[in-house]
Amino acid sequence: MENRTLTCISCPLGCDLEAEVVGDTVTVTGNRCDKGVAYAKAEILNPQRVVTSNILVEGGICPLVSVKTSAPIPKGLIGNMIQELKNMKIRAPIRIGQILIRNLLGTGIDVIATREVETCPAGE
Amino acid sequence: MKEMTTDTLVIGGGAAGMAAAVECAERGCRTILVEREEYIGGVLNQCIHNGFGLHVFKEELTGPEYAQLFKSQIRQKGVETRSDLFVVKVDAKRREVVTMGKNGCAIYRPQALIMTTGARERPFNSLRIPGTRPAGIYTAGVAQRFVNLHNRLPGERAFVLGSGDIGLIMARRLTLEGMTVLGVAELMPHPGGLARNISQCLHDFNIPLYLSTSVVEVHGRERLEGITLAKFDPVTLQRLPGTDETIACDTLILSVGLLPQNELIESFVETDPVNRGVKVDSFMRTTHPWVFAAGNNVGVYDLVDFVTLDGKIAGQSAAKMVHDGFLPEKRVPLARTENISTLIPSLCCLEGNPFTIYFRSKKTMKKARISIGPGLFETIRMGIKPSEMVDIPFTVKHMEKLKQLGLSKIEVSLKEVL
Amino acid sequence: MERLLKIAVIGAGVVGSLIARQLTRYRCEIHVFEKEEDVGWGVTKANSAVIHGGYDDLPGTVRARFCAKGNKMYAALSEELGFELNRIGSFVLAQKPEDFSYLETLRKQAIENGLTGCAILPAQKVREMEPYVADSILGGFWCPTAGITEPWMVAIGAVENAVKNGAHLHLSEAVTGFITDEGPRGRRIAAVKTDRSEYPIDIVINASGLYADELSELAGASCPPLHPRKGEYLLLDKFDPPLVRSVLFPIPSAISKGILVLPTVDGGLLLGPTATDLPKGEKQETRTTREGLSETLSSARTLVPTLDPQWTVKSFAGLRPESPQKDFVIGKTEIDGFVQAAAMRSPGLTAAPAVAEHIVEEVLIRECGYAFERNDRFTPVNPPYENVSRLSLTEWEKRIEEDPLYGKMACVCNKVTEGDIRDAVRRGATTVDGVKFRTRASFGRCQGGFCLAKIAEILARESGRSLGEIKMRSGKTEILRGMVRE
After folding, report:
1. Fewer C-beta neighbours within 10 Å, C or N terminus of chain C?
2. Is residue C62 a part of any domain in this protein?
3. Alpha helix segments (H runs only) across C226-318
4. At what angle do helices B140-148 and B165-176 cross, to 10 degrees?
5. Which residues in chain C have Cβ-Cβ distances shorter than 8 Å to A56?
6. pLDDT per residue over A82-110, tens digit each?
7. Would you state the pLDDT for residue C1?
8. What mean pLDDT is predicted for residues B404-411?
């Protein structure tokens, strides 16, 4: 048996969770909603994060487009994901919600734009 | 020089201003939203991280996505936005707002004015930290802007002073993009930012958090070369001798608080000496009947969702005043007791819609009793932290009871339950 | 072809700049060497910015002679060179009955130094004029002609005017030595060596501030040893109405005028300086200290008790040169052609115009006998740096019609438009500090929180550089160090 204390990151309340781990069974206290239980289980057995970052834009009104993963990805893949983003360029215009990487690193999760980027009239 | 009348004028196109403007327009008011930057959206545009919208949209959004939802509503509802426009003066006597922009000067005469001018970051230079004055010291918001909008990194090795949320977010952001973030120092014995940000921004990346610690000197004549940290007594906040430690870094990021900005109106409205924000009542009306306010210029909120909700109330109230020509005048002041810092609103109206009392605790409490009254109502809350606002709904029933009791002020009290 | 005299002015602070400008009234070849990237970045940029009345310099000293005269010259100078000068007056405040004998001494000295309008005022009158002074104030010596300015703008205005009248400005170029030869009047200056080149030169004016003794030694000219005296300051936020209207001095100590409380021309409040004597070599030791900043605040509070450190906008330190004689070193030396304008301690800023005139008219022309012809094309006027937000709304609108950039606000604290910043860059600002000193953008309460990125972008755009190349000031002060995505 192992006891762990976690801060729930499901929402900004940030509940302090106490988790009792026995094999694959996790018992949670300190949560203010069910999300806390789900979070603690996932965090202990397979920690995942929604990752936000940027991709370089060509011909847009700004140099970068902000992006996020469409769902949480395993924590261990964050570094690989950033590497992937560094090797990319996207041409403006870009629409919010547009899928920029499909099936990121074989996770089945996409990387999507979180803002609009119009084309730059000067074509910079 | 153009002169024009309008029903409502909103100054500041951030979260509060966008919400207020949408509410006004929805209620049939001709609404003009003035923004000094090129685009509306405020700081949301550069907050590319997620965590916004759980209260308002019941889903977790990034800053630009959250802003986009309001930008669309603003278009749909016919709010007239004027960006790149600077407000030169708010004249309360003549009820005029003078603006200047690339098309010249304009004088607006709104029936109701909504101030949503937000906050600014407390700058390094104001902290009186001894040492040199090198390049490489930025507030978290400035660094965030450079990274997320200008595609530039501030340096290679960073230290973060202050554990406010933007500081924590930037610690993660800079780490993700290849900088080394050596740690976060917080003078207080508790973090300034949300617990979830301590967890997902610092713990996830093994960035140490040093509580009761601060920067006591900066080094480097040209670019920053290092900082000296010292420990502070958690109670007296006095520096502890013999605890100095010097760390080599080329970047110092500051997240040491936000200051409400009310320069345009502070000569004719009352401000709260503790919040340093403009005083509002439960209609989000200031002490001047023409002026409403919402957002971080009222008090520094922890969540954009709460800013949006109060912005909506400001918009609804302003629209009501435009239509009815008046708002109920009777109001009772809210008084804070010893454990409370920020408290919004400052006054409670005896009529009108339900609203929310927001406050911040000065202390961490596992369990606390919150009493509103005397004699109005009580509630128990768990896990009170100074970094997180407590939101207490104030219902129409409470208003009725308030009238019955005939209280001359409402005390908001927060006591730890052991 | 006639051969013009070649003159090197070392240092583009207030003193060197004004001398260079004075020289351009004559036909000669002038080279101004400045080791920093911009004008006025040494002693000039971090002092109290006071144009002193000239009552407290002991009659008979060089200081007394030039201070009172310099003060008078500032009126015309500010008109011609386009910098701000506010004659707000000054008080020396008495807190003890015995202080009045000192005030009486000042009153007599004021008369001897040729000042008019000075008076000892009773406590009630002082409080009428300065409502926030301490209850302990018993009275004060009032000097109506004292004023405040922006010292760096004096230097910038003078240099710009000098360049317009034909002087050559060499920025980021440090003088490293001299070549002398044997002339009819003994050893004489033949050339100036810099870290970039070598220039044949007839006359050197040494206005190198903290470095004047080192440069004198390189030339073989005598100069008293100079050491830096550090002054720490606190700049507080603006108040409306202002908390303090004139320059407030305490009764001075043995070594300095004490810690002052005064408004700045843009409406802030300046407290300081401390006076810490540093070893000779520490000419870049501008660190602020805990002790210094707390002394600044506590001393200032003895004059104005309500001052609150919460209102701090900035804390900084400046160095000023001090000699054992506590007096200026001005005039020719044993090296023919090597002329001193050195040890310009307080009131150096005030005295500078008079010193500049003296060096050219008295030292070079009368004493040394150089024959200069008048420069017929000399124009004394330098256009001021404009801030369109200070124009009337109609005037401001006209400027926006000419150029919409005057309608884009960049610095919201001090109301500086992108147009004003662009103009400053076109006139010579190459760095963020260069823009700040010329336009006051980022000088206000947010200290660049909202405008740093905008200033950097305008600098980059105007100079064809990338954002990554933009610097705060001289040296390796790039504000950014890499790309997020390339």
Report:
1. N
2. yes
3. 290-303
4. 40
5. 485-486
6. 999 999 999 999 999 999 999 999 999 99
7. 53
8. 94
User: In degrees rounded to 5, what are phi and psi of residue B70?
Assistant: -75, -35
Residues C371-405: tens digit of each pLDDT: 999 999 999 999 999 999 999 999 999 999 999 99
Burial class (CB in 10 A: 0-12, 13-18, 19+), B290: middle
pLDDT at site A122: 62
DSSP B191-209: -SS-HHHIIIIIGGGT--E
Cβ of C364: how many Cβ atoms within 10 Å? 25
Is C3 found in the same domain as C69?
yes
Residues C288-297 have pLDDT tens digits of 999 999 999 9
B8 and B110 part of one domain: yes
Subunit contact A32:B195, Cβ cutoff 8 A: no
Chains that touch A (3 or more CB pairs under 8 A): B, C
Burial label for C393, CB within 10 Å (0-12, 13-18, 19+), is: middle
Q: Where are the alpha helices (DSSP H) in C113-194?
A: 123-129, 151-164
Residues spanned by the domain of B301: 1-122+257-327
B201 touches chain A (CB under 8 A): no
State which of C298, C319, C340 marks the end of a domain. C319
Q: What is the CATH number of the domain that holds C222?
A: 3.50.50.60
Nearest CB partner across the interface for C467, out of B125, B150, B178: B150
Residue B334 confidence (pLDDT): 96
The closest alpha carbon to B63, from B145, B155, B177, belongs to B145
Total domains in the fold of chain B: 3
Residue A55 contacts C, CB cutoff 8 Å = yes
Q: Which residue of B54, B149, B150 is in closest CB contact with A12?
A: B54
Q: What is the DSSP letter of C122?
A: E
Residue type present at position B227: I
pLDDT above 50 for B308: yes
Domain termination site, one of B256, B289, B309:
B256
What residue in C sits closest to A65 (Cα-Cα)? C485
**Binary contact (B126, C447; C-beta < 8 A):** yes
Q: Which of B98, B102, B178 sits opposite C407 (nearest CB)?
A: B102
**C168 has catalytic annotation:** no
ipTM associated with this complex: 0.95
Q: Which of C52, C170, C227, C358 is catalytic?
A: C52
A98: contact with B, CB 8 A cutoff: no
Number of H helices, E strands in chain A: 2, 10
Give me B143's structure tokens. 């660094």
Mean pLDDT of A6-13: 80
Would an 8 Å CB–CB cutoff place C484 in contact with chain A? yes
Domain boundary among B231, B256, B281: B256
Coil, strand or helix: which one is C435?
helix
Nearest to B200 among A9, A32, A68 (CB): A9
Taking contacts as CB-CB distances below 8 angstroms, the residues of chain B near A64 are 148-149, 151
Asked if the C-beta of A118 comes within 8 angstroms of chain B's C-beta atoms, the answer is no
Give A35-65 pLDDT, tens digit per residue.
Answer: 889 888 888 888 999 999 999 999 999 999 9
pLDDT digits (tens, 9 = 90+) for B207-223: 999 999 999 999 999 99
Adjacency order of strands within the sheet including C186-194: C175-183, C186-194, C198-200
Q: Would you call B103 an interface residue with chain C, using a CB distance cutoff of 8 Å?
A: yes
Q: CA C353 to CA C66: how far, in whole Å?
A: 8
Residue spans of the domains in chain A: they are 2-46, 52-113
Regarding whether B142 and B110 lie in a shared domain, the answer is no
Contact A92, A60 (CB under 8 A): yes
CATH of the domain at C393: 1.10.10.1100
Domain A52-113 has CATH 3.20.20.70: no
Range of the domain at C258: 88-147+227-319
CA distance A64 to A50: 19
